Amino acid sequence: MAFSLSIALFSGVSGQSVDMLIYKDAFTDDELCSDSFPMKLVDDLVFEFKGRHVVRKEGDVVLDGSNPSAEGEDGEDVGADEHVERGIDFVLNHRLVEMNCYEDTSMFKSYIKTFMKKVIDHMTKEGKPAEAIETFKKKIQGFVVELLKKDRFKNLAFFVGERMADGSGEGQVCIVEYRDVNGEEVPTLMLIKEALIIEKQ
Q1: Whose C-alpha in 2, 92, 95, 167 is 20 to 30 A from the C-alpha of 86?
Q2: pLDDT number for residue 169
Q3: What is the pLDDT tens value at each position of the chain, 201 positions in all?
Q4: Per-residue DSSP letters for the chain?
Q5: Is 119 exposed, middle or buried (0-12, 13-18, 19+ CB in 10 A)?
Q6: pLDDT score, position 81
Q7: Using CA of residue 115, residue 123, residue 192, residue 148, what is the dihedral sign?
Q8: Can you tell me the distance from the alpha carbon of 23 to that of 34, in angstroms, rounded to the nearest whole number?
Q9: Cα 178 from chain centroid?
């Protein structure tokens, strides 16, 4: 299974039971990520998850650029007899679906306006205090302004969960930023905290 695979990679503990936190969309119940990836909470607003580009075959994970085939020294048989998939690990694990339409700034602005209202309504129904809601409004507006800066927006990609992709609800669009870290591209997933349900698995 993809989740047990992630635990093996990041926990560093062999043969030991590990509780994992699953981050679900509060509106669609889609599983968007888990704490098996390096993560942090930024400004009590956005969870960031660090991913990496991988190549997978028969449940194995091989770093991108390596030969994913178990046979053939010259790599001629790569993908000949087995399915090989390439992508970002958290995207593959949680079956996120890329939505290029949000690369259009007008489309993204339309989405984020509707989404912010939906989150605020959700916070109100959950009984969050007015002060917390006002703080969220200010923080999310600042976050969006930063994302929309031209030099940053061009490095973003957008994904949704399986149910949202199937039209079974409107929830959170997963924002992935391709960041340069010491000369290496690090895909970083950003999820709004208040639009998530966190479950232990």
Answers
A1: 167
A2: 87
A3: 444 333 333 444 444 556 899 999 999 999 999 999 999 999 999 999 999 999 988 666 544 434 343 333 444 444 455 688 899 999 999 999 999 999 999 999 999 999 999 999 999 999 999 999 999 999 999 999 999 999 999 999 999 999 999 998 899 999 999 999 999 999 999 999 999 999 998
A4: -HHHHHHHHHH--SS-----EEEEETTT--EEEETTS-EEEETTTEEEEE--EEEEETTEEEETTS---SS-TTSTTTTTSS-EEEEEHHHHHTT-EE-GGGGSHHHHHHHHHHHHHHHHHHHHHTT--HHHHHHHHHHHHHHHHHHTSHHHHTTEEEEE-HHHHTTS---PPEEEEEEEETTEEEEEEEEEGGGEEEEE-
A5: buried
A6: 52
A7: positive
A8: 6
A9: 12
Residue partners of 91: CB distance under 8 A and separation at least 6 = 51, 98, 159, 176
Predicted confidence at residue 60, as pLDDT, reads 61
**Identity of the amino acid at 171:** G
* 47 residue type, one letter: F
Q: Which residues pair with 196 in a beta bridge?
A: 25
Task: Please compute, for residue 25, the number of CA atoms within 13 A of its CA located in the half-sphere on the CB side.
Answer: 24
Residue 143 structure tokens: 């976050």
Task: State the residue for tokens 């409107």.
Answer: 170
N- to C-terminal Cα distance for the chain?
A: 14
